[in-house]
Amino acid sequence: MSEQKFKIGDTVQHKSSSLKMVIAAYDPQESVFVTCEWLDKNGNPQEKSFHQDTLQRYRPPSLKISSI
Q: Are 8 and 24 spatial neighbours (Cβ–Cβ below 8 Å)?
């Protein structure tokens, strides 16, 4: 059994995206897979299973402030 890297309720993002998702569940058979939930651009709930190694803790996009 592999170590679970996240807790249910943790906010994460896929390593190739900035989409904010929440860990909803770990697969009881294969604990390295998690179900993530998020809202799409229309506010509709979505969910998908990901390998936990493809996720990282959510990092909000940095604000770029330019001086005038």
A: yes
